[in-house]
Amino acid sequence: GREYWEVAYLPIDPADIGRSYQEVIRINSQSGKGGIAYVLERDYGISLPRWLQIDFSPVVQAYAEQQETEVGSQAIYELFCKTYLNGEGRWALGNYQVNREDNADRLQAELVRGSAREKIAGSGSGVVASFVDAMERFTGKQIVLVEYSEHAMSQSADAEAMCYIQLNIAGERYCGCGRSEDIVQASLDGILRAINAAVIKHTQAA
């Protein structure tokens, strides 16, 4: 009778064919969250928290389906920047000032979009809470900070920090990221980009 193999796959060391484990990572429309996160951390020092991996994975998969090909490392990075870091044509954070009064932080800031300027103000326990309060007043929407994560991009003293933000805005969740040598700036930029994402979604739906 016929003989059948006992295993479905033959184990192979990539070194046996002149490759490395890193080189055999391939991202396509069927790829999971782990492969995408691995590529970003390996090549760009971006360590995505689990909840952002879940949010970003469908973006990469949709792009792979559209292109009908595997997605390279640079394309994944560009998608990440476009989705979470790109602030072009949207509100950006200008000058801001924080004062501590009566056990609360009071923030005054300026939002900038082209030639438009808007003054905002808010208060809370910490700079982040103060900025969220200011943006609630500015947008008229309830905003809740759901997830917050940060890390340095390298080990040097002047390394940039990456901050990952997820907000619940009027019952829907949006993500944004900020990158700066100043962790406070990175945090506020991440919050603003998540809010911008909500504005864009509702503008497109209108």
Automatic annotation (TrEMBL):
Transmembrane segments: none
Residue ranges occupied by any 2-isopropylmalate synthase LeuA allosteric (dimerisation) domain in the UniProt entry: 70-199
Class of the enzyme per the UniProt entry, highest EC level: transferase
Organism annotation: Mangrovimicrobium sediminis
Keywords: Transferase
Gene3D superfamilies the record matches: 1.10.287.1400, 3.30.160.270
E.C. code: 2.3.3.13
Tagged with keyword Transferase: yes
Family matches, as Pfam families: IPMS_D2, LeuA_dimer
InterPro entries: 2-isopropylmalate_synth_dimer, LeuA-like_post-cat, LeuA_allosteric_dom_sf
Domain of life of the native organism: Bacteria
PANTHER family membership: 2-ISOPROPYLMALATE SYNTHASE, PTHR46911
Biological-process GO terms, alphabetical: L-leucine biosynthetic process
Molecular function via GO: 2-isopropylmalate synthase activity
Protein name: 2-isopropylmalate synthase
